[in-house]
């Protein structure tokens, strides 16, 4: 079981529908200032670990606050605080809204 | 009590949870910076007297979000928490959590509990909790976690005494296990525990999960860990995500139970949100940032001169006093001409460093620095840097040493290395005396366009040149260094707060101390070496100096001082330094320099600020007391170039020298710090070579074009 790596446990938490092609989920980088959504999953295993540690968990609500002057990075509210992410980092968070 | 027996208390917690404020409250002025054994990173420790009179040692750690490290800074914390049997192992861990955001803070707490060290939970920011109308059942929280919970306000000290009482009490390890390791991991963990002897499952599990934090293991035990990791195909962070989810679901249940009154009222954050509209605005944001930068430079250059002049004068007087009070001899000379000026050369930079860190620390305290990172990240990335490189680059204007130490917060290896490599190109305060005197010599003191002072413009141009060179070099290194490692920003934007000024004061003290110790060691050593090179020479030329000069100047009716100056100049010319200066003359002739400037290049090789002093000696004006600068300037103006019959310091030579000193490494202390920070000689050597080549080629180009 160990050999299968991260996937078997993650599968429980991931709604990684982009890959399976069922629904196109929106991601955080496509949100507009003021928009709210629910974190549905991540498209990048490596980043997801760090994002989750920062309280950006599947099921948590995110609010898109504002972007830096050139559109990158962006600032979101999640788990009760403000988090800044680069656009490509934000793009790995899928949301439902 | 012997300090070896003092209890060690570690403060850990999320960034901005108030750890430093608490540390300052507990230790006051009894703080010092030392080194972790084995790890080449300094630690902040302080002594704290408890209510019963006993004294404990408090250690402040860099902020972390979890026990899985993301940067070098964070790795230190993991190493200390994983190493349970060294002299540095803390006896108690105090986890500081921001009570307005308990969920995130508890993640780290649950990991520390599972690792099996005695733990206390401190809930900080209780004033804001009250303001937001939140209320928790702290007794239940304590019971559920099996650790004492102490609510405090680290801004005004409420709750500190309760914490001190807890620190004095005996503290058992929590009997709770929040996360039990996966079934899959049980076999390798058991094997590891049997073979290496580790206290508990989670700790052993972390050995397998993060081998990068095991610097403390000897090679034998290290091999066992590696063997088991290969056998069971572990890779770093294998189950980390699942563990995080498990812990957060525990925390969510816990919070549901202990929260008596939740608050959706975020109005205390409203002011902060409004400020962000302005401070990260595409026009106002940058205008304000550059306004602040301007203010900082103004402060460093204008306000710092008063204390600097005072320090300069004080050390010159001390030197003269020692020279006259002690019997003549090599020891007096070493003291008066080596050690004291060397010390003065370190202390003189303290005002600028203190002012710079006053600003940086206040900006950090207020939460604004995170916005600077946010504003600059995209631009900096184009040059292979990171938004977080802004602070080191800014600090570099005062001194590269604290600046390079500040790069530890950059988690990406490549971006951090590039930041370290280019920071010394930012013009530090040691270049300022050289710039000032050369600009005064070759740029007319005139106004242009009505109000811009030409000399001021030239100075600004040099700072800009340094900055442009730093960014350009960064860009080149980005292309050359071929490492594929992902870079992250992922940074909290903390709520804006009025800085707590005592915290700012503590930071100033800490940074200044670090500079004086760090640079002090090297500069002292170098000054002594230079003193030897400048005071001794081959054969008997040095001892005969007096006779020779007297012979030469028989008909000149010199004053006693004029005579002494001539002798000093003659001695320098015939010393080892002078011989080296003459030997390198062919190499520096294309830049427009003669052997006299060569001597100054040699003596300032290790510390560029020595340049002006050497020039003063070479041109026999060492003993001039009042108004040094104008005298040196006047004397440099008179210096004739025998080849042309014109002045030695033509604009071409002056600009060539200015450019040379803008780019050249010329600072041994910085190299020493880079060596320490990069764990080897590779990067400091590359840095020395590329900066020297850049300096030489640019100076050559400037001289050849202008002359
Ligand atoms: N309102 C309030 N602010 C606090 C409290 N403790 C710390 N702060 C502020 O929170 C900010 C971060 O604190 P600091 O000690 O630097 O946190 P660190 O990053 O964990 O070292 C600073 O502006 C402090 O003045 C508190 O109990 N109440
Ligand atoms: Mg701090």
Q: Based on helices, strands and strand pairing, what is the structural class of chain B? A: alpha/beta
The name of the CATH superfamily of the domain at 8-168 in chain B reads P-loop containing nucleotide triphosphate hydrolases
The pLDDT mean of chain A sits at 80
Q: State the end-to-end CA separation of chain A.
A: 35 Å
Strand order of the largest sheet of chain A: 1-6-2-3-4-5
What overall geometry of chain A do the principal axes of the alpha carbons give?
Answer: globular
Radius of gyration of chain B: 30 Å
Q: Please state the CA-atom Rg of chain A, rounded to the nearest Å.
A: 13 Å
Task: Output the CATH topology of chain A.
Answer: SH3 type barrels
Total strand segments of chain B: 12
Write the layout of secondary structure elements.
The complex is a heterodimer of chains A (97) and B (707).
Chain A: H1 7-10, H2 17-20, E1 26-27, E2 36-42, H3 45-53, E3 61-67, E4 74-78, E5 81-85, H4 87-90, E6 93-96
Antiparallel strand pairs in A: 1-6, 2-3, 2-6, 3-4, 4-5
Chain B: E1 8-13, H1 19-27, E2 31-35, E3 42-49, E4 55-60, H2 72-82, E5 92-98, H3 102-114, E6 119-124, H4 126-132, E7 135-136, H5 138-145, E8 149-151, H6 160-168, H7 183-196, H8 201-209, H9 219-231, H10 240-258, E9 259-261, H11 270-279, H12 284-303, H13 305-325, H14 330-347, H15 350-366, H16 368-382, H17 390-395, H18 400-405, H19 413-422, H20 432-442, E10 447-448, E11 452-453, H21 454-480, E12 491-492, H22 501-535, H23 545-552, H24 560-574, H25 576-583, H26 585-588, H27 595-603, H28 610-618, H29 628-638, H30 651-663, H31 668-678, H32 682-706
Parallel strand pairs in B: 1-4, 1-5, 5-6, 6-8
Antiparallel strand pairs in B: 2-3, 3-4, 7-9, 10-11
The complex binds guanosine-5'-diphosphate and magnesium ion.
Guanosine-5'-diphosphate binds next to helix 1 and helix 4 of chain B.
């Amino acid at each position: 079981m160990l050999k299968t790596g991260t996937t078997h446990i993650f599968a429980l938490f991931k709604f990684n529908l982009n890959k399976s092609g069922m629904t196109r989920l929106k991601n955080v980088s496509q949100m507009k200032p003021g928009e709210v959504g629910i974190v549905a999953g991540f498209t990048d295993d490596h980043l997801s670990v760090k994002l989750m540690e920062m309280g950006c968990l599947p099921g948590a609500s995110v609010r898109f606050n504002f972007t830096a002057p050139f559109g990158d990075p962006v600032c979101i509210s999640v788990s009760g605080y403000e988090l800044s992410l680069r656009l490509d980092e934000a793009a790995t968070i899928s949301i439902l809204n | 009590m012997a300090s070896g027996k003092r209890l060690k208390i570690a403060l850990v917690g999320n960034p901005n949870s108030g750890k430093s404020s608490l540390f300052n409250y507990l230790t006051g002025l009894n703080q010092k910076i030392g080194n972790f054994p084995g790890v080449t990173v300094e630690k902040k420790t302080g002594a704290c007297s408890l209510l019963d009179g006993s004294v404990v040692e408090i250690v402040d750690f860099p902020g972390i979000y979890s026990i899985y490290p993301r940067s070098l800074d964070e790795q230190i914390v993991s190493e200390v928490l994983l190493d349970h049997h060294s002299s540095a192992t803390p006896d108690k861990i105090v986890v500081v959590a921001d009570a307005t955001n308990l969920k995130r803070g508890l993640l780290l707490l649950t990991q520390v509990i599972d690792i099996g060290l005695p733990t206390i939970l401190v809930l900080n920011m209780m004033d804001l909790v009250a303001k937001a109308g939140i209320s928790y059942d702290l007794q239940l929280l304590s019971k559920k976690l099996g650790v004492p919970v102490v609510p405090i306000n680290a801004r005004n000290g409420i709750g500190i005494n309760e914490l001190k009482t807890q620190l004095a009490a005996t503290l058992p390890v929590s009997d709770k296990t929040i996360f039990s390791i996966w079934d899959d991991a049980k076999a390798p963990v058991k094997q590891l525990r049997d073979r290496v002897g580790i206290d508990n499952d989670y700790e052993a599990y972390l050995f397998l999960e993060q081998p990068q934090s095991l610097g403390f293991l000897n090679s034998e035990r290290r091999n066992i860990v590696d063997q088991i990791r290969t056998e069971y195909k572990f890779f770093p962070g294998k189950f980390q995500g699942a563990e995080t989810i498990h812990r957060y679901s525990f925390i969510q249940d816990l919070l549901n139970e202990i929260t008596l009154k939740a608050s959706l009222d975020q109005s205390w954050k409203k002011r902060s949100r409004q400020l962000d509209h302005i401070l990260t605005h595409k026009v106002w944001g940058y205008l304000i940032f550059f306004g602040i930068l301007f203010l900082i430079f103004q402060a460093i250059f204008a306000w710092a001169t008063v204390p600097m002049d005072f320090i300069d004068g004080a050390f010159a007087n001390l030197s003269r006093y020692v020279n006259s009070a002690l019997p003549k001899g090599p020891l007096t000379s070493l003291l008066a001409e080596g050690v004291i000026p060397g010390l003065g050369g370190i202390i003189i930079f303290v005002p600028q460093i203190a002012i710079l860190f006053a600003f940086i620390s206040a900006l950090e305290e207020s939460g604004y620095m995170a916005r600077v990172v946010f504003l600059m990240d995209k631009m900096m990335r184009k040059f292979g840097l990171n938004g977080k490189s802004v602070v080191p680059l800014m600090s570099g204007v005062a001194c590269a040493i604290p600046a390079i130490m500040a790069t530890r917060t950059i988690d990406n290896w490549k971006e951090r290395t590039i930041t370290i490599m280019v920071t010394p190109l930012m013009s530090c305060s040691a270049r300022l005396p050289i710039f000032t005197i050369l600009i005064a010599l070759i740029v007319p003191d005139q106004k242009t366009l009505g109000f811009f002072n030409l000399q001021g413009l030239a100075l600004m141009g040099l700072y800009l040149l340094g900055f442009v060179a730093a960014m350009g070099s960064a860009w080149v290194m980005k292309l050359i260094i071929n490492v594929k490692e992902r870079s992250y920003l992922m940074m909290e934007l903390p709520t804006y707060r009025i800085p707590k000024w005592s915290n700012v004061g503590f930071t100033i003290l800490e940074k200044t101390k670090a500079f004086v110790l760090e640079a002090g060691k090297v500069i002292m050593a170098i000054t002594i070496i230079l003193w030897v090179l400048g005071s001794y020479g081959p054969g008997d030329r040095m001892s005969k100096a007096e006779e020779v000069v007297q012979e030469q100047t028989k008909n000149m009716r010199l004053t006693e001082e004029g005579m002494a100056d001539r002798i000093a100049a003659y001695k320098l010319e015939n010393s080892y330094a002078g011989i080296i200066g003459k030997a390198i003359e062919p190499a520096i002739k294309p830049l427009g320099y003669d052997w006299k400037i060569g001597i100054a290049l040699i003596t300032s090789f290790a510390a560029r600020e020595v340049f002006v002093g050497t020039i003063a000696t070479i041109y026999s004006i060492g003993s001039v007391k009042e108004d040094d600068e104008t005298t040196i300037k006047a004397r440099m103006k008179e210096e004739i170039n025998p080849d042309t019959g014109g002045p030695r310091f033509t604009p071409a030579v002056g600009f060539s020298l200015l450019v040379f000193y803008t780019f050249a490494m010329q600072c041994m202390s910085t190299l020493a710090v880079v060596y320490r920070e990069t764990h080897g000689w590779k990067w400091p050597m590359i840095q020395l070579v590329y900066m020297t080549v850049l300096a030489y080629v640019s100076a050559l180009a400037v001289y050849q074009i202008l002359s």
